[in-house]
Amino acid sequence: MAYKYLVIVESPAKAKTIEKYLGKNYKVVASVGHVRDLPKSKMGIDVENNYEPHYISIRGKGDVIKSLRSAAKKAEKVFLASDPDREGEAIAWHLSFLLGLNLEDKNRVVFNEITKEAVKAAFKEPRSIDIDLVDAQQARRILDRLVGYSISPILWRKVKKGLSAGRVQSIALKMIMDREQEIRDFKPEEYWSLDGNFQKERKKFKASFWGVDGKKKKLPNAASVKEVTDRISSKDFEITKVEKKERMRQAAAPFTTSSLQQEAARKLNFRTRKTMMVAQQLYEGIALGKQGTVGLITYMRTDSKRLSDTAKVEIAELVETTYGSEYISRKVKAQKKAAGSQDAHEAIRPTSVLRTPEEMEKFLDKDQLKLYRLIWSRTVASQMTPAVFDTMKVTLEQNGVRFIANGSKIKFKGFMQVYIESNDDGKQEKDNILPDLTVGETVTSVDIEQKQHFTQPPARFSEATLIKTLEENGVGRPSTYAPTLETIQRRYYVKLAQKRFEPTELGEIVNAIIVDFFPQIIDIHFTAEMERDLDKIAEGKEEWRKVVDHFYRPFEKELAKAEENIEKIQIKDEPAGFDCDLCGQPMVIKLGRYGKFYACSNFPECRNTKAIVKEIGVTCPACHEGQIIERKSKKNRLFYGCNRYPECEFVSWDKPIGRNCPKCDHYLVEKKVKGGKQIICSNGDYEEAVQK
Fold first, then answer.
1. Are strands 614-619 and 494-497 parallel, antiparallel or unpaired?
2. 624-640 core/surface letters (b: 16 or more CB in 10 A; e: else)
3. Mean pLDDT of 145-152
4. What is the pLDDT of residues 435-483, one digit of tens each?
5. How confident is the model at residue 334 (pLDDT cuts 50, 70, 90)?
6. Is 479 in contact with 257 (CB distance < 8 Å)?
7. pLDDT band at residue 218 under the 50/70/90 scheme
8. 240 and 282 co-located in one domain
9. Would strands 401-412 and 203-212 be described as parallel, antiparallel, or unpaired?
10. Would you tell me how many other CB atoms lie within 10 Å of the CB of residue 577?
11. Residues 6+ apart with CB under 8 A from 390
12. pLDDT for 470-526, tens place per residue?
């Protein structure tokens, strides 16, 4: 016999890595994800028989199952080493059923990281399958199936084929729609600001208006500004108060799945799906030359912010040798864990911080290195001392008019030596150093700037801010965010415009139906409670059928009502304003799977269709005949091309502006850059100042 033990994991990459660690008595194979699931062709849940699920082998997995059965027969023992979460536990349970294994057997092996030490330690302490975790996954799967397969057919019949609804996706869509409504309802309000430039000897500093006669005052209009400025009779202001304090800023916690998705979007410009794909590669193993294949990060689906004691000790040693002992956080000094103990459900961290991004650079591709550096920096910084700022708040007064100047400078960098967390508006904190000022001194105002402003509507959601909002409301789980965002885009309920979610007409229709007829589905509190119930199932404190029933009984009533009362919605075709060039009948604008397009009204006799294109008013710089139009790539990225294609093949990611370069006579384009837009030469010889 070539091997004694068979180990089954989910992915071939993981199998390859683990087999190297275990030696010749072990054969490691991959199930390639799930092997059994509910059927696609029907509901697959017997509602009358206590929600009994009807599982079948997944279509196309026959050969995989056959080879797993054959390999299992040759082995003395089978180990199930799927991922360390509910989904992984369910895969182990389904495999156990298909291979006829005993559920009482201690054949389940879990490890949070794919390193030789962690894998070998895990195999010393196998356990039986945790049925509570399996039940929690089953409950989620059944709930999602009941919602999806009950509402989707109604949407198909009443609105349009190919539509769908889901517990998390419907809430995500409603959040986007609610935000859109806020933007539409928004009425800008006028307000003014007064900012003074002051001087002490040769040093200048800024201060902002605060109030008059000791009371804070708003400036809603020009008249209120004039009231204030009329009181200012000279350029001399007295320093009436100086407050000096020390402020500390704590490091951000290590990454959970959602905080990694958010930060990768802000810092690296990664889409959610890309972040998860690259993280999976780092987790499953990277070939490190002579060291062999090693998993570089711990399991990337987690909502834990905890680090193992072993990791903390390793980080402390690295920080001490690299930066000095004053940079080690007091909370780090922990004892090493006993050898062989399993420590699952950690935050996302490097499996060893001693593998620095600089050392890993030669083994990783560009995206892997970016994400690894992000995870490494955040993990190390989380265990370092707080940053210390010296802050100064100065009050300036004249004739009861009060201005306040705030200054701060970094006294001790602490964790900021390694990593600074981004925020959603992209603003970075800068040192603002004030001159040395004392109470009773007089400073001079150089000028006082009056500015009119208008309040801005709330911003549309980006992927990062939507995930953050879903998480804050307790909706969904780390593993659900990426597929949810993908689904609502694939169904054309929303589209990404300037990296922000914008609802489509179809999205508005579907959302209106769900809101009117299925209030329970989009009730955030109800869904958050459901997530807590699923957690209770996983902890063995709740029975899964009871939780499903609690949801389904009121939902069943909503379904019957919807079936009866939803009117068939006809998405009307809009006239396009021109005739078909094949048959002469009027062309119309239709709503398709990927957005709007022109089609002949004489369908099906005439099947002429055209893409809707937008001219930008610029003649093609290549052929000088055609017009430049906006086009979309398959990945929905905007580009510019000639409307005479394929005769003229001109394309550009950047927008041509219809002017030529004064240096080389090549065409100029408008490029998006940090801080605004910039006109540059397509040849790279010339650029103009950035326009905000």
1. unpaired
2. eebebbebeeeeeeeeb
3. 92
4. 989 999 999 999 999 999 999 999 999 999 999 999 999 888 877 888 9
5. very low
6. yes
7. very high
8. no
9. antiparallel
10. 10
11. 244, 245, 246, 247, 408, 409, 411
12. 999 988 887 788 899 999 998 889 988 888 999 988 899 899 999 999 998 899 998
The long-range contacts involving 306-309, CB below 8 angstroms and separated by at least 24 positions, are: 306/345, 306/346, 306/347, 307/254, 307/346, 307/347, 307/349, 307/379, 307/382, 307/383, 308/337, 308/343, 308/346, 309/334, 309/335, 309/336, 309/337
> Whole domain around residue 512: which residue ranges?
138-186+459-565
Please tell me which of 250-254, 590-594, 628-632 the model is most confident about, judged by mean pLDDT. Answer: 250-254
pLDDT tens per residue across span 624-638: 889 999 887 766 677
Instruction: Tell the residue number behind the tokens 């958050």, with chain if given.
Output: 528
Is residue 299 annotated as a catalytic residue, yes or no? yes
Verify that 263 and 244 share a domain, yes or no: no
Strands 494-497, 595-600: pairing is unpaired
DSSP strands (E only) in 170-273:
190-200, 203-212, 215-216, 236-249
- Pair of tokens at residue 677: 């837009």
CATH number of 229's domain = 2.70.20.10
Q: Decide: 503 and 461 in contact? Cβ < 8 Å.
A: no
Q: What pLDDT shows up at residue 192?
A: 96
For residues 283 and 318, the answer to whether their CB atoms sit within 8 Å is no
C-alpha 55, offset from chain centre: 32
Collapsed DSSP state (helix, strand, coil) of residue 687: strand
Instruction: Answer positive or negative: Cα dihedral of 216, 222, 228, 229.
Output: positive
Query: Distance between CA 137 and CA 344 in Å, rounded?
Result: 18
Catalytic residue among 3, 21, 299, 667: 299
- Token reading at 176: 């986007």
Non-local (6+) Cβ contacts of 296 within 8 A are 282, 283, 285, 286, 350, 351, 355, 360, 372
Q: Please write down the HEC assignment for all residues of 592-618.
A: ECCEEEEEECCCCCCCCEEECCEEEEE
- Asked if residue 689 is part of any domain, the answer here is no
User: What is the reported pLDDT for 343?
Assistant: 42
Strand (E) or helix (H) holding 577: strand 574-579
Which of 195, 76, 187, 673 lies closest to 449, judged by CA?
A: 195
Mean pLDDT for the chain overall: 89
Domain stops at, among 129, 158, 176: 129
Q: How far is Cα of residue 160 from the mean position of the Cα atoms in its chain?
A: 29
Q: Would you state the pLDDT for residue 665?
A: 83
Specify the pTM.
0.81
CA atoms within 13 A on the CB side of 241: 10
- Residue 239 main-chain phi, psi, to 5 deg: -80, 115
Tell me, yes or no, whether 241 lies in a domain. Answer: yes
Long-range contacts of 581-589 (CB under 8 A, 24+ apart): 581/608, 582/606, 582/608, 583/608
- 228 - beta bridge partners? none
Q: How many residues does the chain have?
A: 692
Examine the pLDDT at 410 and tell me if it is beyond 50: yes
The residue from 323, 355, 382 where one domain ends is 382
- Model confidence at 428: pLDDT above 80: no
What pLDDT shows up at residue 39? 94
Same domain, 415 and 532: no
